Every structure is written in C-alpha cells, then in structure tokens.
Amino acid sequence: MSEITSKTNTGRFFEDFRLGETIVHATPRTVTVGDVSLYTALYGTRFAVQSSDAFAKAIGYPVAPVDDLLVFHIVFGKTVPDISLNAVANLGYADGRFLKPVFPGDTLSTTSEVIGLKQTSGGDAGIVYVRSIGRNQHNEIVLSYARWVLVRKRRPGTPAEFELVPELPKSVAPEALGEGCPPLHPAAYDDALSGSPFRWGDYRAGERIDHVDGMTVEEAEHQIATRLYQNTAKVHFDAYGARETRFGKRLIYGGHVISLARALSFNGLGNAFHIAAINAGRHVSPLFAGDTVFAWSEVLEAAEVPGREDVGALRLRLVATKNLPCNEHPLKHADQYADGVILDFDYWALLPR
Amino acid sequence: MSEITSKTNTGRFFEDFRLGETIVHATPRTVTVGDVSLYTALYGTRFAVQSSDAFAKAIGYPVAPVDDLLVFHIVFGKTVPDISLNAVANLGYADGRFLKPVFPGDTLSTTSEVIGLKQTSGGDAGIVYVRSIGRNQHNEIVLSYARWVLVRKRRPGTPAEFELVPELPKSVAPEALGEGCPPLHPAAYDDALSGSPFRWGDYRAGERIDHVDGMTVEEAEHQIATRLYQNTAKVHFDAYGARETRFGKRLIYGGHVISLARALSFNGLGNAFHIAAINAGRHVSPLFAGDTVFAWSEVLEAAEVPGREDVGALRLRLVATKNLPCNEHPLKHADQYADGVILDFDYWALLPR
Amino acid sequence: MSEITSKTNTGRFFEDFRLGETIVHATPRTVTVGDVSLYTALYGTRFAVQSSDAFAKAIGYPVAPVDDLLVFHIVFGKTVPDISLNAVANLGYADGRFLKPVFPGDTLSTTSEVIGLKQTSGGDAGIVYVRSIGRNQHNEIVLSYARWVLVRKRRPGTPAEFELVPELPKSVAPEALGEGCPPLHPAAYDDALSGSPFRWGDYRAGERIDHVDGMTVEEAEHQIATRLYQNTAKVHFDAYGARETRFGKRLIYGGHVISLARALSFNGLGNAFHIAAINAGRHVSPLFAGDTVFAWSEVLEAAEVPGREDVGALRLRLVATKNLPCNEHPLKHADQYADGVILDFDYWALLPR
C-alpha cells in the first residue's frame, strides 16, 4: 500500500512571512580550499590577497581570506529555500557589510529576519524585506545584508495583515567599512605582485574604467557555481521545466554575473582587494549561457576609513553588459538602462594607501 | 628504427577472469576537501553532516565525513580498467556496505575478488561477478559491494571452464547497517540546520515522496565528475568514437545518475544523511547530456539498527527519470519499466531518531 | 563629471621589451588540494605518486607532490599579462627544468628575464625570448623554462634596437634531471597500485605507444582549466570577440592539450610519474571545443640519471591529434605535420628502475 506524503519543501508564500520573525536556514557549510579553487576556476579572479597565503601573511592576514563574494554566495544560497523559492523577482540589496574575514575551515550558516512586508497593487504578490546574517562557527557575524524580493501569494487577493517598508541606507557609511579587514602593513603590500601600481590615492571620483576583457558563460559553469553555493533556485538548473517559461531556457544566477564582473574588474582595479560593503545592486536583465559578459566601473566616491591609515575606500559602480564591449561605458539612455546592460552594482572596496 | 609495442591496457575479457582470484586495482587516491567541493558543485548535495564540520562535530564525528557516494565512485572507478573495460553492460549491484566513514586526507584503494562466472547463452560474452573492497590507508575496509557485469569474450564461443553464480542477499540485514556511522548524539542534531523536521520515526513503509526538482546535465559536468573518480570507461569521454555506437553519442556514467538522484532526494529526505548499504541497483536506461533528471523515493521498510538508540534505518527505493517529472511516481507498467525511468536503486539510509 | 582613464593593462608590445630586464609577474598563487582535485577532474590523470599521499610517502615523498604540468600552467599563466597579451603566436619552449617538487600549500610566483629579441622580416612583429622562473614561498626555484613568442609591434616598421637570438639546448642533459625528484625507494614502489608493470628498463629508444583512448573537450572544461591557472589570454574566453577572428571561435589553451595528452599517456606509460624536463614543444594546430584528443608517444632516448640508482629517464615525444585515433602514429608527411596533429611535445620523464 502506497501513501503519497508531502515532506518536500514547497517554499514560503507572501502570507507565510511574519514581520520580525527570524528564520534559521538549513545546511551550514564549511568553506575550504576546494571552494577557493573552484571559485578561481569559475571566474579567473586574480586579487593577490585572496590568491596567495604568502602575500596575505606579509600584509597582516593569518592566511589568504576567502573571496568576499564567495562568502556572499554561500550565505545567500542558504536563504533561497526559505525566502525566494516562490519569488517572482529579486528586487534589490542594501546595507551589505562584510564584518569579519572568512578563512578556509570556517563554517558558515545563515539566519534571516523579516524586516518589511508590502503588498503590490495587483494583489497577487508582495514584497518581502529580509536582513540576512551569515555567521561563522564562533557565532561571529561575517556578513549582514538586506534584500527584498517579490514573492507570490498563496491565495492572490489576500490582503496583507501588516505593511512596513524598512528604512535602508542608500550607502554604507565609511565608518563601517574597516571591520572585515585586519590592520595591514601597506609597506609590505607589493604592487608588482598585486598586478597594479594604482593605490587608493590614485583614483578620483568620476573616473571610469573599461575592464576590456570579455568572458563567455557556459551552462555547465553557472550550474557548477550555483550548486557550489547550494543555491537551489530551480530556474538555474531545470532546462525541461524552463521550456514553458518566459525565456524558454535556464536563467543564470545573478550572483554569477556579479562575480564575473568583479573578476573582470581586476584589470584596472587590481588593488581593490576587499569588498567592504554592498550599497545596492540591481540585476537589470537576465544572462543566458552563450552570452559574453563585459564590465566597466565608475568611481562614485573616495573616502577615508575613520581610524585607518593603512587602507582607503572607493565607492564603485560596477556595470556588467552582455555581448556589448564597454569602451563607451554603456549605462542609461534617459532613465532607461541601455540595451545590453545586465548589472548595476554599487559597492565599497578597500585599497591599500 | 621504430618498434611498435603494446604496453597499453586492453582490459580483461571473460576468459581472463579466474574464480577466486583477487585483483589489485591501480591508483590509490587521497580524498581531499577539493574532492568534496567538486562533489558539492557537481550535484548540489546539501546533507548537513557532510557539508559542515561544525554540524558533524556536534553530533559525534571528528569532522565532516566524505559523502558515501563519492567514496563509492572512487572505489568503483579503480575497478574499471581491470573489470569492465570490455563490458557490454553493468548488470547489477548487491550487498554494498559502507563500513567506516571516510574523511578528507584518507587514501582509498580497491581490490576485487572474482566470486562468480557464468556464460551467456549466445556464447560471445559472460557474466563476471566480483566483490570489490575499498580500503583506507590503515587497511580498514570502508566499502564492500558485489557487482556483476556482462563482459565480452576474447574468442566468441569459447566455453567457460567454471561456472558459479554466487548467492547474494536481496538486501543487507539491519544488523550490518551501523558500522559506517559512529555513535551519535541525536539531541545535538539540529533539525533547523539540517533542513528537515522529519526524523526516522516520521517515515512509514509505503510512503512515496516526489523530490520535485529537476537537474539538467551537461557534457562538461559528467565528464568532470567521471574523471574526478578516475573512471576510464571510454564511452563517457570519446564523442568521436561514439559516433559509431548504438547511441551515436557519449553515455553518462550510471553513478552520476545515482548521485544526482540522491542529491535531489534531499528535498523530502533531508535527514537521511548516511547511506549505510546498497541493496540493489539497476540502470534501466541511459542518460545523455541535455537530459533533465528528476527523482522520487519510496520507503520500502523502516528498521531499527540493533544496538543503536541514536539512529534508525530506512530502506528506500530511489527512482530517477529523465525529462519526466515524478509527481506520479513513474516506475513500471506491467513488468516493464515505464518510459523515462533511468534508475531503480534500493538502499538503506540512516536517520537520527 | 566623468573622466575616462586608462588603468587597465594593455600588455607589452615588441618595442616595450628590453634585453636583460626582469619582469616580476603578478598574482602569487597558493596551490592547494583544491587545485589538485580540479586537475584530476579536468584531465583524469592517474599517476599514483600524485594521486595518493600514502603511495608518495611509501617511496620517499613527504606527501603527494602536485602534478608537474599543474605547476607549469600556474607558473606560465602569470606571464601572460606581461609577455603574451599582444602575442600573435606562441612559437616554442626549450630548456624547461622542474627543479623542486611542489606540495599543496606552497605559493608560486613567477619572474621572466628577456633573453632574446629578434624582429621578423615583415617588420610588424618580433620574437621575444624569455626565461621564466617559478619560485615557491621559500624563494626556491621550482621551474625554469625558456619560451619565445611572436609579439606585435606597437608601431609596425619600427626597427629593433637590439637583436639577440639566445642559444638554447636541443634537450636538457640527463645530469639535470634528478633535481625535482627526491631519492626514492624503488622497492616500495608498488607496480600493481601504480597500474603498470613496466619500469624504466622495459622501454627502448624507438618504441612507439598508442595511448588508445580519446577525450572530447568542452568549452566549459578548457575555460575552467585556463582560469584555474589565472591565464588571461582572451582568445580562450571571449566568444563574442572571437567571431571576428580567423577561426571565428574560442581557441583552447595549448597547455590544456599538453595535459590531456599527458593524462592519456598513462595508458602505456603509467610509471613515467615525473616530468623532469621539457625539451621542446610545438602547438602544431589549434584545438576547439567539440574536438576529441588522442595521443601517442615515441621513446626518443633512455638515459641513466647520473648519481641515481632509483630512477631512470626516458626522453619522450608526445604527439596529440584531434579527431584522429593514433594507432598509426601520425606525425609528418615529408616535412609537413600530418593533418590532425595538434601537438609535438618533447620531454624527459622519470621512471622507477
């Protein structure tokens, strides 16, 4: 006698979120040098601090820290089964702060607090705002960020019981930027080995940099990456199911685009070794396998980090495009994003002074 | 002056196997956190015990053990050059027992004993039964399983000298299921972190679970996986040679399907963290790149493990399909496997009580 | 106010190289077990010494050394942004010597000395000869090799100020072959575990070995490999830009072919565990995704290594083809390479005696 039961996770709908509740996400994850190698192999990232134990030790780290975006993707991946399995769209990020370096051997886990709820005018979905917090095995916060997603309602038309749109900063204040970076010895920071002669003081607000190179993405690559992060969003993996969707094919995880663009940005920003904060991020348009990603950056602001003589911060807008070289720095026409733009990402990076 | 010699391995034919002989397979392999990362990236597996050192330590492991199927694939891969290079088909598995956990840093090697030989009626091939045993660097057995394969004869028509069909159990007895699992502290097993509230006592024989998600497979993925296991079966790698074969293209290693289905089964069986035994396995039909794999499970039996209060065992039938969602639990029509079914795998899993 | 600046690396042109200058290349790289796993997964290499800590320790290594070609690719990758970003062609290698084993945890960095310059008759490019040296974190040389590349001139027609073609040995002398290999205990070298009964004394000059198996290459695979080596040559990654090139598609890194052929050569040369030297190498013709690689070897010379009773050296010509099985050992017709030949690689390997 067979009995069909439902022990599978169907994900939460808009009505299932309660303001103020904290969700403990599944599958803690020990980050290892294996993950670091895969991250290098998937993006070709070349920042010396994350690439070399010897380089990292010389400037003050105990060993090479794990790439900040690898930390982000792992912390983020855990939230998917609980937050965004029934999401229509990932709307934005704010107030992301990297607060402790992560090293191989650390175990990451994630919780999310529901910090806002707002139904849309159509009534069949609502916006869920969460603050997700990644911690290491010592229960220290390594990453904190806010995200909001458009989530389907279980029963379209149900009115929301509470509505609250949280206040989130447009950008993280410079005071908060140094926590994820130990005190460094800038004199020991070797510009020949790092691959760029340009330090913090060499960049100016308004400066634009075309990162020149293009990187074509394959299905196997983004699937391998997204599974590495234990991100289960089915749109990235199920070509059979995707036939019936708007695009007719698998969609590439937005975080994959961020990592590709960041790796390309080494060419021009080779000393911007640490992402201290994520101010905002928008996935303007989807990326598909076979597309080629290009990127450019604009320096939005240069800031001292209070109390730090070793490093300074650059607020950078990182723009990624598909099948469109960035020598003309494409962004917007009037208020519309230009064709080909896929990512508009606003973050703070630290550079040695 | 050139001389053409034959130092290459042409594999054994049916006549080359002797009943009772033990074959020492080549290439011992140290399993590392690099392999673990690749395994995660290839399948997206999310069982907390194997994913997190912190979680594993809390319940009683020294560190996170290596996924049982990764151990299986590595132990199995070594047998290919000696056992199945001239195989026509992999017919079955039985009496597979995982007897010691494997941890990163352990070195695995494999031997196989020929435990049965039987020629087929056609006379151009025969069935070879082997018991393959994987050992760690301390010479401790970590895995033992029986397998039988249809192997071509060197000279079709040669009669077999001996014939013996070994007796193999239909399923492994519950007494043998605890050896690969140290004593655990079920109270320290955190269901929020593991991702499932369902423990051993929550499952009933007869219960069926659709694992919902689909995973599309790419050529690069199965090749990377199969090479990781140092499995040299050329049908998986040589598209040029495959043009002349029945399918005209590369075949995906059957073990890749088992791992995909097992990873999908997390959704519904999130606490079935350890494969204690493989009772039987059949690759019903081949998988090719581009296909999307779905899976469902049936609980065949729930058993206590003698002497263990910490864990219980579920005997599970894991069925995988291609391009066929499993909400209707497809398996057989009359005695024939239904179209789309590719794997029928019978195993024992342990869950915390 | 935006300002467009040029902080990106545009690479050196022929005129930018000065005879005798030493270039320090960017991005030191700690090699880990993660890299080793990926290397295994990308090529399926099975040499026991590099695969097993237990095997390596038994014969005299502290742990399993990193595959020599993985070391080569990482050391080589660092030179690309400085040496060959504007290269038209990679012309050759000589005098490559592996001088210290590399172990997981070692950090590699590379410098190159310009040892020769020669303009071509056309006047729009010139040949740059460099000696590249890879060092570990103790500043010990692990690899030294000469390479020459055809590099575009910034201003076609500019005459070269100096011209010097360096003298390079046709092959590395046997005296230099033992440095990368510690003293071994050949009695502890287990031929069953290594997968080949043939030791150094079993090979004869003139002997040819077809390695039989074929390996089809996917775009995702060669991109993952080439990024793992932090090799930034855009021809391997940018399908969009490649549309306008002679081939219309991405080119596979030549080193990927060497590693594929070397891994295939295990079948026939299973005890040739260490590459001691690279005498010469020519990428005869390009490889593209979808092609299937085959390989064969010729023993050019067998030599004792002075002072060593434990190992002997074979000078091997390793030939790779695409979409062409090697049972007839294709190489040249008259003086022309035969159709399908893609690699002609001359190296010294060590085998136990």
Produce the secondary structure layout.
The structure is a homotrimer of 353-residue chains.
Chain A: E1 3-4, E2 22-24, E3 29-30, H1 33-43, H2 48-51, H3 53-59, H4 68-84, E4 87-98, E5 107-119, E6 125-135, E7 141-152, H5 191-194, E8 207-210, E9 215-216, H6 219-228, H7 239-242, H8 254-264, E10 274-283, E11 292-304, E12 311-322, E13 332-333, E14 336-337, E15 341-352
Antiparallel strand pairs in A: 2-5, 3-5, 4-7, 4-10, 5-6, 6-7, 8-11, 9-11, 10-15, 11-12, 12-15, 13-14
Helix pairs in contact in A: 1-6
Question: If you had to describe this structure to a student in words, what would you say it looks like?
Answer:
Chains A, B, C: It comes from Bosea lupini. Chains A, B, C: One of its GO terms (molecular function) is lyase activity. Chains A, B, C: It holds the Pfam family MC_hydratase. Chains A, B, C: InterPro entries: HotDog_dom_sf, MC_hydratase, MCH/BMMD, Thiol_ester_hydratase_Rv0216. The structure is a homotrimer of 353-residue chains. The first copy, chain A, has two domains: 10-31 and 66-168, Hotdog Thioesterase (Thiol Ester Dehydrase, Chain A, Roll), CATH 3.10.129.10; 171-353, Thiol Ester Dehydrase, Chain A (Roll), CATH 3.10.129.10. Chain A is of the alpha+beta class. Helices cover 19% and strands 32% of the residues of chain A. In chain A, the strands form two sheets. In chain A, strands 2, 3, 4, 5, 6, 7, 8, 9, 10, 11, 12 and 15 form a twelve-stranded antiparallel sheet that branches. A two-stranded antiparallel sheet of chain A has the order 13-14. Chain A starts with a strand and ends with a strand. The first copy, chain A, is built from eight helices and 15 strands. The interface between A and C is large, with 56 and 44 residues. Strand 1 of chain B pairs parallel with strand 8 (207-210) of chain C.
